[in-house]
Structure formats: structure tokens, C-alpha cells
Design goal:
The complex is a heterodimer of chains A (360) and B (127). By secondary structure, chain A is an alpha/beta fold. Helix content of chain A is 42%, strand content 14%. In chain A, strand 5, helix 4 and strand 6 form a beta-alpha-beta unit. Classes of the chains: A alpha/beta (360), B mainly alpha (127). The interface between A and B is large, with 59 and 54 residues. Chain B: This is Poly(R)-hydroxyalkanoic acid synthase subunit (PHA_synth_III_E).
Chain lengths: 360, 127
């Protein structure tokens, strides 16, 4: 009768036992959680090639016996740290690329200092990126460079590629890169020009504080932080879960401030006037039209991206002038597209098969 | 094993997941209104102004007490960061100089690097 009702006392007893064990483990591991630091991130061996203000250029030491001719320059988003792409061994995109025979450089950012509040879009697009490309060429001895841009790093790479369209960029890969800023609905509403006085903000605070940037990201999913903490408590007995949580949590909260003038330009040119989508964007007086980009391009977008929704990213492939172009939509969110178990299975192998044959 | 549908842990997790989705969807809808934007930016503007004023007051108070203000400590931290950055820069330059001195004709350093001869695996080899 009990079996017919779906009750299995042996399995219930097992389940109770396992829950009691987990409860004990939670108490022990809970104490451990607060008394230890998280895993060490971004530890793939690298050399610092250049440090100039907020700009940092790294070269990761090759590990393969032979490497592809064309080096890769990764351009990180200006709001976040580059170690999202170099978490821990076995879960590092950089390590994956090195093992697959790529020569990898990264343009990473540090917090702009108060005196750097005057950094403009021009400084990023016409100075920092070209300077890094030059240094990569010099260091590698190769003329061609492939560029990978993540999120807003993708926007900066597109601006660079559209201005220096006859330059050394051989391939362009964008991860979750917004083009149509009208479609970033909540950010649009937060920065509604009728109510958001960007001039007043920038003039009073200088650089936009990281807390403000972090809270605007968190407001997109206000319940998720609390829920993730509940889930952490439930899974605190599971070392792998805790490790993954700590890595993502540390990165997620390690947001960078944005240089004031740069933020002002993003708000006015992109959020308000949607200039990149409307083909009216210019940087330092130089037109930046996506149709000028003619190099092979791959755009990877995430199916469940709440930060850059598909509608904001989908026009990129249509608008560039390249003939060799591809968009790939993969399962996952804005971050899980590029890091974590999901990325290892989906994005990384896809990128390798696309880029390998274009890197000789 | 117990049926997953009857498992209290699974039921709890599903419930939490649904609550999260529901709350996020509700909040997103509320935050899409112009009224929300107006209120948020009014509060944000007022807070920024108040913070600035409070900061100035605190600075005067700490000065009177002969204590360093937060701004001064941040300034010191920034100086340290800047010294650290300059050290990194010097390190990078030294690294470059060292490599160039070993290189036959400048440019590509003499630190042994793998040859740039890799070819992509053929279609059949790719997983």
C-alpha cells in the first residue's frame, strides 16, 4: 500500500540521513567560508607589457609547442576586471586559448584615478586600443592581430575597427555586444534624459562610483542576489559549488568606476542618441560606421542575457560590411556565456573552430 | 530513490526559483515606468548632493580634531597605487629592455617562444 502511494521508507530514511549530514556539513563549512579567502583568480602566468593610467596590457606565456601566426588581443569591458576570462585552472578561457595554440594578450583596466575623470571616449578608442595593438605587433613580430571584445569591450573594439578599418585587425570576435541601446530597456529608463542629469552627476562626483554601476546591474534582477545567497547556504556543503560561487561573486562585485567624461559620452551618444545604431557615431571627429568593418567577424550572444538582451545585439552582424560574418546564439546568460561550465562546453570550442582557421 | 516530484528539497528549490523569476519580472515591470525613473533620479540627485555636503562637513570636523579625512586617506592610497603602477611600468620597461638586448634585431624577443607555424586541425580532428 505504501509502495502504491509512492512512499519508500528506505529512501526516505536515506534522504533524512543525507539531509542531517548536509546540515552538519553546512555548519562546519559555513564557519570555514567566513574564515578563508576564495580561490586565487587570474593566475595564468603572464608578463605586464605596459601600464599607463587605467590601461594594462598583459601577455600570457604560451604553453603550446607551436602557436598560430596571428596573436589575439582581448579587450575587456571597462566596468569589470579581466580575470573573468582567467578564473582558475580548468575554468580559464585564457588557459584554454593557450593550450589550443593561440598567442594571447589582454587589454585590462584598473580603476581610473580622480585625476583621470577627464578620460574621454577618444582616449580609449584612439589611444589605448591602438597603443596596445602596436605593442602586440611589436612584441609578437606580426602585423596582423585578432581582437576579441567582451560586452562594452566589444563596443570599443567595434569603434576601433570602424575607424581603423584599413588597420592591422585581421579578425574580430565580439561577445554579447550591444549595438541598439534603445533595446536595453531598463538602462534606458534609468538614464531617461528627462530625469537623469548626467552633467550634474559627472560634474559633482568626477568618476562614476563603482557602487552606482554595480547597483544598476543588480537592479536588473533585484531578487537574484538574495536568492543566490539562499542557494549558497543550501549548497555550502558542496565545495565545488562554493568555489564557483565565490569566483563569480568576487568578480561580480569587483566593479570598476567609470571615468566621468567617458560615462558622459556613453550616456549622451549611445544611451540617448543611439549613434552607433544610427550610423552617426564619431570619436574625436572621426566617423565610426559599422559598415566600414570588412574583416571576418563572429558575434556570440547569449540566449538569456539580461544585461544585453538579444534585441540590443542582433543588428551587429547585419550592419558590419564584412562578407565573412557569423552570429552564434548559445544557451546561457551574460557571464555564463564566457565563463563557467556552460562556456567550456559551448562558446570556447566554437570560438576555437572559428578562429583557428583564420589565424594562420 | 524518492520520486523527484515528492522530494521536499526539489519542491523548495523550484519554489525559490519561481519566486525569484516572479519577483524579478514584477520589479522589472515597475522599474520600466517613467515615474520610477523620475523618482530614482530625484533620490539619486538628492543623495549625491547630500553626500557631498555631509562630506564637506565631516572634513571640517576631522580637520578640527587633527585627524585625516577619508579623502586624505583615499589620496594616500592613490599615491601608493600610483607608485605601484610606476614600479610596474619600470618593471615592464626593464623586461622589454632585457628582451631587446637578447634579441638579434630588436622586435621579437629572444626569450624562446614557440614557432608560429600552427595549422588548424582538419575538420575530422576537431571535436
Amino acid at each position: 500500500m505504501n509502495a502504491a502511494a509512492g512512499l519508500d521508507f528506505a529512501s526516505i530514511s536515506e534522504r533524512v540521513q543525507s539531509e542531517v549530514q548536509r546540515a552538519i556539513q553546512r555548519s562546519i563549512k559555513g564557519v570555514e567560508y567566513f574564515s578563508t579567502s576564495g580561490p586565487s583568480l587570474g593566475s595564468t602566468p603572464k608578463d605586464i607589457l605596459a601600464v599607463r593610467g587605467t590601461m594594462n596590457l598583459y601577455h600570457y606565456r604560451p604553453v603550446a609547442d607551436e602557436i598560430y601566426r596571428v596573436p589575439i588581443l582581448i579587450v575587456m569591458a571597462t566596468t569589470n576586471r579581466g580575470y573573468i576570462l582567467d578564473m582558475v585552472p580548468g575554468q580559464s578561457f585564457i588557459e584554454f586559448l593557450l593550450k589550443r595554440g593561440y598567442d594571447v594578450y589582454m587589454l585590462d583596466w584598473t580603476a581610473p584615478k580622480p585625476e583621470e575623470k577627464s578620460l574621454r571616449m577618444e582616449d580609449y578608442v584612439l589611444d589605448f586600443i591602438p597603443d596596445c595593438v602596436r605593442r602586440v605587433q611589436q612584441d609578437s613580430g606580426e602585423k596582423d592581430v585578432s581582437i576579441i571584445g567582451y560586452c562594452f569591450g566589444g563596443v570599443l573594439s567595434l569603434l576601433y575597427g570602424s575607424i581603423f578599418h584599413d588597420g592591422p585587425m585581421k579578425n574580430l570576435i565580439c561577445f554579447t555586444t550591444p549595438i541598439d541601446f534603445r533595446e536595453m530597456k531598463l538602462f534606458q529608463n534609468f538614464s531617461d534624459r528627462r530625469y537623469f542629469d548626467v552633467d550634474r552627476l559627472v560634474d559633482s562626483v568626477g568618476n562614476v562610483p563603482p557602487e552606482m554601476i554595480l547597483s544598476s546591474f543588480e537592479m536588473l534582477r533585484p531578487a537574484s542576489r538574495t536568492v543566490s545567497q539562499v542557494q549558497l547556504w543550501e549548497n555550502i556543503w558542496n565545495d565545488e559549488y562554493v568555489k564557483a560561487y565565490r569566483m563569480m561573486d568576487r568578480w561580480g562585485t569587483d566593479t570598476l568606476p567609470l571615468a566621468g567624461e567617458y560615462f558622459r559620452a556613453i550616456t549622451k551618444d549611445l544611451m540617448w542618441d543611439n549613434k552607433l545604431y544610427n550610423d552617426t557615431m564619431s570619436v574625436g571627429g572621426r566617423a565610426a560606421e559599422l559598415s566600414s568593418i570588412k574583416v571576418p567577424i563572429l558575434h556570440a550572444v547569449a540566449e538569456h542575457d539580461h544585461i544585453v538582451p538579444y534585441d540590443a545585439a542582433k543588428h551587429l552582424i547585419m550592419k558590419v560590411g564584412s562578407t565573412d560574418k557569423e552570429e552564434v546564439m548559445l544557451k546561457g546568460g551574460h557571464v555564463s556565456l564566457v565563463a563557467g561550465a556552460n562556456a567550456i562546453k559551448r562558446l570556447w570550442p566554437k570560438l576555437d573552430s572559428w578562429l583557428g582557421k583564420r589565424s594562420t | 530513490m524518492a520520486d523527484k516530484g515528492n522530494d521536499p528539497a526539489v519542491i523548495w528549490q523550484t519554489m525559490i526559483g519561481e519566486m525569484e523569476k516572479g519577483f524579478n519580472a514584477f520589479a522589472n515591470q515597475a522599474m520600466s515606468s517613467p515615474e520610477f525613473s523620475k523618482a530614482m533620479n530625484q533620490v539619486g540627485g538628492a543623495t549625491a548632493g547630500a553626500q557631498k555636503q555631509l562630506g564637506e562637513l565631516m572634513e571640517k570636523y576631522l580637520l578640527a580634531m587633527n585627524l585625516p579625512s577619508r579623502a586624505q586617506l583615499v589620496g594616500m592610497a592613490e599615491r601608493l597605487q600610483s607608485i605601484e603602477s610606476q614600479l610596474n611600468e619600470i618593471k615592464a620597461l626593464l623586461h622589454q629592455v632585457h628582451r631587446n638586448s637578447l634579441a638579434p634585431e630588436g622586435g621579437y624577443g629572444a626569450t624562446p617562444r614557440p614557432p608560429r607555424t600552427k595549422r588548424p586541425p582538419s575538420e575530422g580532428e576537431q571535436k
